[in-house]
Amino acid sequence: MGDIHGRADLLEQKLNRIMADPVTHNQNKMIIYLGDLVDRGLKSREVIDLILAYEAEDIDQVWLMGNHEEFMVRFLADPENSMEWLTYGGAETLLSYNISVAAGAFNAEKAIKAAEDLQVAMQDAGHDQFFARFQDSFEMGDYLFVHAGIDPEKPIAGQGSEILRWIREPFLSFSGTLPKVVVHGHTVTEEPTVRNHRIGLDTGAYYSGQLTCLRLEGRDYRFL
Q: DSSP character for 144?
């Protein structure tokens, strides 16, 4: 699943399609979220609610850490030095938890109060342990799933969190071969990007209304 960015409405539509997909209806399902579930869109809390609701279903889930989850975790831990999160969509995430902010008038005192309020709101919503299960990458068969991409000059085992969550170049312009096909989000394109070594799924859902979901079975794939 590509970058959702607070569009719970689009996520619900895709999850309904996954559950109704006749090809996979009687098979074990795994949903891999490529990160950036939160920020920018207005329903980040509802996105997390939806994802957690599917924990009760017979579906395996993998949650990858995006740069926006990293921003949010930083803000919770050190709000005074992480106020830039608000300008990157964090204000909308706070609003989804009924925490009102005015990003332009923010100061350290208000940031600390907002972080405290967010901690309480996440606990009340059952979200306080949500980020503890996130990981930076996931390998399955011929595929490597990450948020942003990899450094093609380094082995897969040598990729650090900053690369996996933030990289654009030289990954995007790389035209060689890689040990695995990298499935990623992070960089917005109008349509899903398919290359011999990577598949990009971020189609700007929060403003385009197009959330991209890739269905994989072995080497076969299609978009839902």
A: E
**CATH number of the domain to which 59 belongs:** 3.60.21.10
User: Side chain identity at 160, as an amino acid letter?
Assistant: G
Mean local confidence (pLDDT), 102-106: 68
This prediction's pTM: 0.95
Answer yes or no: is pLDDT of 103 > 60.
Answer: no
| Token representation of residue 143 | 């595929």
**Per-position b or e across 157-185, b if 16+ CB within 10 A of its CB:** eebeeebbbebeeebbebeeebebbbbbb
Can you list the pairs that 109-117 forms with residues at least 24 positions away whose Cβ atoms lie under 8 Å? 111/75, 111/79, 111/80, 111/82, 111/83, 112/79, 112/80, 114/79, 115/75, 115/76, 115/79
Strands (E) in the chain, as ranges, are 29-33, 59-63, 137-140, 143-146, 181-184, 193-194, 198-200, 214-217, 220-223
Q: Write down the residue that tokens 């926006």 correspond to.
A: 68
Closest residue by Cα to residue 201 from 220, 224, 169, 175: 224
pLDDT, one tens digit per residue, over 105-128 is: 789 999 999 999 999 999 999 999
**How far is CA 135 from each of CA 10, 57, 78, 140, rounded to the nearest angstrom?**
23, 21, 21, 14
Number of domains in the chain: 1
Q: Which domain holds residue 133?
A: 8-223
The confidence band for 24, taking pLDDT boundaries of 50, 70 and 90, is low
